[in-house]
Design brief:
There is one protein chain. This protein is α/β, with parallel strands linked by helices and 257 residues long. It has a single domain (23-255), classed as Rossmann fold. The chain has helices spanning 16-19, 36-42, 83-96, 112-115, 146-159, 179-187, 197-207, 239-255; strands spanning 29-33, 49-54, 61-67, 73-78, 100-109, 119-128, 141-143, 163-171, 190-194, 210-220. Strands 1, 2, 3, 4, 5, 6, 7, 8, 9 and 10 form a ten-stranded mixed sheet that branches. A hairpin with a 6-residue loop joins strand 2 and strand 3 (61-67). Helix 3 packs parallel to helix 7 and helix 5 (146-159) packs across helix 8 (239-255).
């Protein structure tokens, strides 16, 4: 039995919309990027201007208003790792005015055969974390928004980018990905593992906003030992593809396609 009791009351003691005012210049679409170097490298290209800050005792992170080459405005933020931080960023950005989210980040590989040479589109996430249980009733997993997934897959297909739709294992405990838990989650149909998807998907469902995620493979847990892949050789050089896929998906989500 899950030790966390779900309360469906949308009002809490502290509510983001009561603490954070709408930001007039905030775009309705946002790329949540789990790669700080990629964010910094993109600021000039997308004419980024800070319009707000995600504040914490660990330091403030700017939320940028960016403009694509075709004039499409989008917000961009460098995310902190883990479900609690990701959920907090989403809550605050929703209060600021964001309605559609496309997260981009890395994942660990559980099934080589499915993920090799492909980008990953999660269609469901196993809830091996804590945040989602505060936003949804207890369940083994959470399904992602079908229309948002469709938009992301259509964007990838338009770019000719190979991808795989699969289930992901979202865990809080990076150092507790044991052989037994890996086998268990592979048996559940998970091909990859990461630390935020279930949390973000739960926030999106609870708040009624759109969310999808694009992942690239960063390391592998599919063998008997950890394969610590070099991100510079496994996807980080493809940042233009990631942005093109993310922005194409957001445009389709905004247009209802």
């Amino acid at each position: 039995m899950c030790p966390i009791e779900f309360d469906p009351n949308p009002k809490a003691l502290i509510n983001p919309e009561e603490q954070i005012p709408p930001v007039e210049a905030m775009p309705r679409d946002a790329v949540l990027l789990f790669a700080d170097d990629m964010v910094r490298a993109s600021l000039e290209k997308y004419r980024a201007q800070p319009v707000a800050f995600a504040k914490s005792v660990c330091g403030d992170r700017p939320i940028y208003r960016c403009t694509a080459e075709d004039g499409f405005p989008f917000a961009l933020v460098s995310m902190m790792l883990g479900g609690p931080a990701a959920a907090g960023y989403m809550e605050e950005m929703i209060a600021m005015g964001v309605q559609r989210f496309l997260a981009v980040g890395s994942c660990g590989v559980l099934v080589h055969e499915l993920t090799a040479g492909r980008l990953i589109v999660p269609q469901a996430a196993v809830r091996d974390e804590g945040v989602s249980y505060h936003y949804l009733p207890p369940a083994d997993e959470v399904a992602l928004d079908g229309s948002a997934i469709h938009a992301l897959c259509a964007s990838l297909e338009a770019l000719g980018a190979p991808y795989a739709r699969t289930k992901t294992w979202t865990t809080d405990a990076f150092y507790r990905e044991t052989p037994g838990k890996i086998a268990q989650n592979k048996a559940r149909g998970c091909a990859v593992v990461e630390m935020e998807c279930a949390s973000m998907a739960a926030v999106a469902k609870f708040r009624g906003v759109s969310f999808a995620q694009l992942l690239w493979a960063g390391d592998s847990l599919a063998g008997t030992q950890w394969d610590k892949r070099n991100l510079s050789d496994h996807g980080m050089g493809a940042e233009d593809l990631y942005f093109a896929a993310a922005l194409g998906a957001l445009k389709r989500m905004a247009a209802g396609r």
